[in-house]
Every structure is written in C-alpha cells, then in structure tokens.
Amino acid sequence: MKSFIYITVFALSTILPTATIADQERELAFETIARGNLSGVTHQMDVVIRDAQEFEMLWMHHSKGSMVAAPMPKVDFEREVVVGVFLGYTPSCGYGVKINEVEERATSTQVKSQILVSSSPILCLIAEQPYELIKFPRSQTWAITFRQGVAVR
Cα(56)–Cα(40) distance, rounded to whole angstroms? Predict the structure, then answer.
C-alpha cells in the first residue's frame, strides 16, 4: 500500500506543473505624475497613498514653500495607488531619484528606485529635495515594499 502511495505522489509531481517564484512575479506599468528637485518634504521618506484625502494632505505638504504650486495630479483611487520616494535635503546639487520598476509578487508589490548621485557634486544656492511620485493600477497584494539602489551619473 505504501509503495502505491509513493508511486502516485511521484507520478503526480512529475505531471503537474510547479509554480516558481518567477511565475508569480509580474511587472506593473506605472506613470510618473510628479518629479523634481524642490519639495516641501524635507526629510527622506517613501510613501504609499491609497485615497484622495491622504493624497491632498501629501500634495499640500509637498507644495509648501513653492512659489507657484503645481496643480494636484488626477488619480482614480478606486483603480490606482500613488507611491512616492522623497530624498529630503541633499548635501549638494546633482542628486535625484528615479523609480525604475514596480513588480507585483505573490505577497507584496515591490517598488524599485535609484538614488542618482552626481560624480562631481556642485554647491547649491538653494537646498534641493529630490522626489518622484508615480501612480499604478491597484494590485492583488496590499503590502508595498521599497528597494533602493544608488547610481553615479
């Protein structure tokens, strides 16, 4: 009887397809809705915004101190989520941030970004606070994680 069970399990394991981690990952399309070097957000932070009220509060904080506040981008929070990467104050000019990829995984969505650093830093006349905000379709996973790298330009 045991040999029958082992043979059946072996036969099924060779016939049935197995899901790999790569099969459970897919890249999500995203759209940059704001990017620049001047922000009212003066400390480093990654944000996930899931509703219009949160986005309005973030946009007011981000626009604070701006001579001409840009209009708040339109987002359909029934279908989309907003993610932002803010570097806060940088030690010199020539810094930036770029979100490269949004990847949906089995248990979370991962946002991959790079901190861009100038190979020859320049003294700034005004302090910079690089940032990027993107929107993308809501995914099946609720958790959103961030992964940052550094690139010299």
Answer: 14
Cross-sheet strand order for the sheet of 31-36: 31-36, 131-137, 80-86, 45-49
- What are the Cα distances from residue 148, in Å, to 27, 44, 75, 100, 122? 17, 12, 25, 10, 23
pLDDT per position as a tens digit, 82-120: 999 999 998 888 899 999 999 999 899 999 999 998 887
Report yes or no on whether pTM surpasses 0.70.
Answer: yes
